[in-house]
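Deviation from plan, reported transparently: adenosine-5'-triphosphate complex.
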Amino acid sequence: MIDVSDLSKSYGRIEALRGVTFHIRPGEIVGLLGPNAAGKTTILKILTGYLQPDRGAVTVDGLDVLTNTRAVQARIGYLPENAPLYPELSVQAYLMMIAELRQIPETERGNRISEAVYAAGLTEHLARPIGQLSKGFRQRVGLAQAILHKPKLLILDEPTVGLDPTQIVEVRGLIRRLAEHSTVLFSSHILSEVEALCHRAIILINGEVKADARLADLEQTANAVLVLQARTDGVEKALRGLRGARGIEATRTSDGYPAYRVLGQINSDLCPAIFDLARQSQWPVRELRRDVKTLEAVFNQLATTA
Ligand code: ATP
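Because the crystal trials were delayed, the predicted structure below was used instead.
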């Protein structure tokens, strides 16, 4: 549904994106996760045809965004960071205006608005001026306008920013429901949000993709950590020979003990085999544990080494 290849964009001297590449399949719900100024909004603006990249290719549903901008925009529902809502208009009048702009045939407008308003949980607020709605409800209006034309792809820029905890839960629920019918790409700097909503997280730091992982794979990729009382000959070589070990990282714990992280395969637990090996070899074991990778661990590691 989305193919982004080697995308770069600078604002003057600021390199906002540096060779970004990723692909999103139809039906996926993907979180673009990154700290402030990572380049998330820049990517979303390029995908939606509101900004030109300096280099790289972007296609949406097989169409080149740069040469088929209108056709791409017709396939996308976009919730920008600060959705331009008109406070004096009622929800109904605003959505009617968007329906016209989207060139939805007049005979269909009523139905489309009813469906979008129902999906966004706004049915009882149709007549209210947008300016009188709470921030959470204004965000729902933003989402309703994004889905009015039944887009194949929803692009949401920080959809829950500035909402209170109850509103966050509501808007997340809404996004989950919308994802049943569309591919969804949203940006966030909140880890728990990405974990709660996504199949996949693309981690962007300083304009570069630092990780792109299915969350289920992350959770199931079990590494093992072995800490010894003292440095011992042959440990690394023996661990390397273990069935299922993809690699070894030799380090030290913060209090100076030799430590080995044995990288495992998806759905594997290397601890029993390491335990047997350590007993047979009489290694002075201090600690042996599984080290399940969470998104938080990956993100923190990347953010601190960036
Ligand atoms: P945030 O989470 O804070 O919204 P972001 O990940 O969405 O950040 P971008 O808004 O894409 O990041 O910004 C990436 C970098 O580009 C930042 O350093 C930002 O200051 C810079 N930038 C973005 N827009 C402009 C602009 N119009 N002119 C100059 N610099 C810009």
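The chain has two domains: 2-217, 221-305. We consider this an acceptable substitute for the interim report.
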